[in-house]
Design brief:
254 residues, 2 domains, 1 helix, elongated
């Protein structure tokens, strides 16, 4: 019998994943590349109903019927982009904006040396720290440290701001705009998944998964000793209404 397969069909896979995250009304928002993915695996699981004979001690199999097919996939992404993080945190990507303000005031009571105290604003400046009820201003880098970007002061241990004292902080806040991720704000993440293969060796497949549901898979390493990754689990849903011939997905090979 002739062997029709050849070594060219062996696979060392590579490629790019794109995801079109549907909005709350199920509309397309455009395909976005997910960046470097260290793996992308597809699993087809089946559940069967089996009937065995009771007419002999051997109890041979009379019939086996597949009653359920479940198609899932997994991937690990290297890029901690805001959009990728929003998926990993079951959240949404947005924008944090702060308008410039002057003459802001924040009071703190029963100070503890070595602690940090947040002013409630980012990008602060013109900071003045004074004792309550009155007195000369404390000296930055001697009595307290200022983290202007995060909007915090740290009371220096051994400085003039004694434990248990009260302070009044006046400051200005500059205008700033930052990317924001709100975690845990959505109950589902659905969209169209597109895989464009570019294998190191083997056939190049293009996969189109019409409607998938994405959930986080594993921990996010914000402090690690190795490169962090974002794990995602993917459930492929039936889209017979729009793709009756290929209800779940299709793989194309030119």
């Amino acid at each position: 019998m002739a062997i029709t397969t050849t070594a060219k069909d062996l696979m060392i896979g590579a490629g790019v994943l794109y995801f079109d995250r549907f909005d709350k009304d199920g509309n397309s928002t455009g395909e976005r590349p997910l960046g470097n993915a260290t793996d992308f695996t597809l699993t087809t699981a089946t559940e069967k109903k089996e009937k065995y004979s009771t007419m002999s001690a051997a109890r041979g199999l009379l019939r086996s019927v597949v009653t359920k097919i479940t198609i899932t996939a997994k991937t690990k992404l290297d890029y901690f982009s805001p959009a990728n993080l929003a998926m990993a945190l079951m959240g949404e990507e947005g924008v944090y904006t702060q308008t410039a303000q002057t003459g802001l005031d924040k009071k703190f009571t029963k100070i503890i040396q070595g602690m940090f105290y947040g002013l409630g604003y980012k990008n602060v400046k013109s900071v003045v720290v004074k004792p309550i009820p009155t007195g000369a201003a404390y000296v930055v880098d001697v009595d307290y440290l200022l983290d202007a970007q995060t909007g915090r002061i740290e009371v220096i241990a051994g400085g003039s701001i004694a434990d248990g004292s009260d302070i009044d902080v006046t400051f200005d806040a500059g205008e700033c705009t930052m990317t924001k991720i709100s975690g845990g704000t959505v109950s589902k993440i659905e969209g169209y998944l597109h895989f464009v293969g570019d294998p190191t060796h083997g056939p190049a497949y293009e996969g189109e998964f019409w409607k998938v549901s994405i959930t986080p898979d594993g921990d996010l390493g914000f402090i690690t000793e190795d490169w962090g990754s974002i794990g995602l689990s993917i459930e492929v849903q039936d889209d017979s209404e729009n793709h009756p011939k290929d209800p779940y997905y299709r793989l194309l090979n030119a």
